[in-house]
Structures are given as C-alpha cells and as structure tokens.
Amino acid sequence: MKKILLPLVAMLALMFMNSCQTSKQVPYMQNIDSISLAASQFLFDARIKPKDVLHITVHTTDPTVSAPFNLTVSRRLGNSGELSSGGGSLQGYLVENDGTINFPVVGRIHVMGLTKQECETLIEEKLAPYLAKTEKPVVTVNMSSFRITLIGDFNSPKVVAVGTEKMSLLEALASGGDLTLYGKRQNVMLIREDATGKKSVHRIDLTDANFINSPYYYVQQNDVIYVEPNATKAKNSALGQSVTIWFSFISIATSVASLLVNILRD
C-alpha cells in the first residue's frame, strides 16, 4: 500500500509547488506603476509592404468620370449571357515585390512604405491630370490582407484578420483567447518580416510593462507570435505520463492478483 501511496503523495506535492511557481509568473505588466509610458505616446499607422492586397476605390461627383479608375468584375447574368460589371471594391491590387501596383489608366504607382492616408493622397495627385480642375476625387485605400498568426500556448491559436489595420500586442493575445496558464510570458517570440523579406525575431517579456514603449507593442501585417510552454507544463506532461504508467501497472497488478486468488481458491 505504501508503494502506491508514495507516488501519489509526490505527485500532489509537485503539483502544489508548480502551481505556486506559476501564480508568480502569470500576471502581465507587474511593474506598470513604476515605469514611464512617455515613449508610447505616438499614433501608429501600418505601412504598405510587398504582397499586401489593397482595396482602392475612386469616387467623383459624376460616377462615369471615376469608372475608368476603378477595377471591375465582369459576370454573366442568368441564361441571357449578358455581362454585368461590379464596383472596384470587389477586386484588390496586389503590391508587387518592387513595391508598385498597376493602377487603371495611370499605370504603375509605387506605394511600398506608405501609410493608408499617404497612399490615398498620392493616388489623388496621380489622377489630377486626367480630371477636370474642378473635380476633387475621393480615394479610399484599405489593406484587406492584414493578418497575424498566433501559435503555441494560446487558448485558441489561430490566424487573425485585422480589419482596422491597427492592433496592439495585448489585443492580439486577447484574439487568441489569451495565453494558457502554462504559456511562457517572459519570453514571447515575435517573428517579423520587413519590406525586403528579411525576417527578424524579437523576445518580449509580458511581465515587464516596458514592452508598451517598444516598437513591438503594435503588430504589423504577417507577424507571427509564438508562445513557448513553460517548465511547469513540461514537468506536468512528464508527470502525467508517469502517473498513467503507474495506474496502468497498478490496474494490471490488481487484475493479476485477483485472477491468482480465484485460481488458488478453486
């Protein structure tokens, strides 16, 4: 009996010690009241990168004037076979590796590195020679391919579409259902690709509020956030396997003993 109880007592003691250790590592931004957040006082704007997909529409007072500058989608209507065209918002512009898009009538426009507003202003300027001087076109640009990837010890790892083109790291974590209790908050890995395709890895300590002042507080398109499991999860995993083996052994031993007792009785 003692041989059975000892592993169970050891398991419960280890689980208790692990829970105490984990509780000290779980809270975010533990020093938030003792640091200055002055460096975080800026407005973030995502910048266009190669392989982004942009939805661009041009609006003028007379829709027929702006029609040549909007992408159209042709489709056949019913059995008649007639073609109908949709608005420009139905198709996107793929930013090429050289940072340009092929815009109707105007031709190639270099948009890489621009914010949404800067891109809108640039296109409005490019359209000016093709429009009457009194015409003031309204250009809207949206990044439809802004996505980030959450993997590792999240409650709900997933690929997240960012419709607002602005998401903080904390919002990203919330989108994945937050980290599990076993997620390593002191060493969150952020993998980022720049406009040239170069990848870089950045380590973030979520228990230290200074990450709010860092360039990684706001995520960028195609960021990958990986959360490593902590030592507690690894121990529990090994312990779980050990306990399973013990219970399997005890179950088999009990069955064998019961069988022997029955045989001897007969």
Set down the secondary structure blueprint.
Layout: H1 2-25, E1 53-59, H2 63-66, E2 74-77, E3 82-85, E4 93-94, E5 100-103, E6 107-110, H3 116-127, E7 138-143, E8 147-152, E9 158-161, H4 169-175, E10 188-193, E11 199-204, E12 224-227, H5 231-265
Parallel strand pairs: 8-12
Antiparallel strand pairs: 1-4, 1-7, 2-3, 5-6, 8-9, 10-11, 10-12
Helix pairs in contact: 1-5
Which terms summarize this structure?
five-stranded mixed β-sheet; 5 helices; alpha+beta; 266 residues; elongated; three-stranded antiparallel β-sheet
Tell me about this structure.
- It is a single chain.
- By secondary structure, the chain is of the alpha+beta class.
- The protein is 31% helix and 21% strand.
- The chain has 5 helices and 12 strands.
- It has helices spanning 2-25, 63-66, 116-127, 169-175, 231-265, and strands at 53-59, 74-77, 82-85, 93-94, 100-103, 107-110, 138-143, 147-152, 158-161, 188-193, 199-204, 224-227.
- Strands 9-8-12-10-11 form a 5-stranded mixed β-sheet, with helices on one face.
- Strand 8 (147-152) and strand 9 form a beta hairpin.
- Helix 1 runs antiparallel to helix 5.
- The radius of gyration is 29 Å and the shape is elongated.
- The model is unreliable at 4-10, 16-21 and 83-89 (pLDDT under 50).
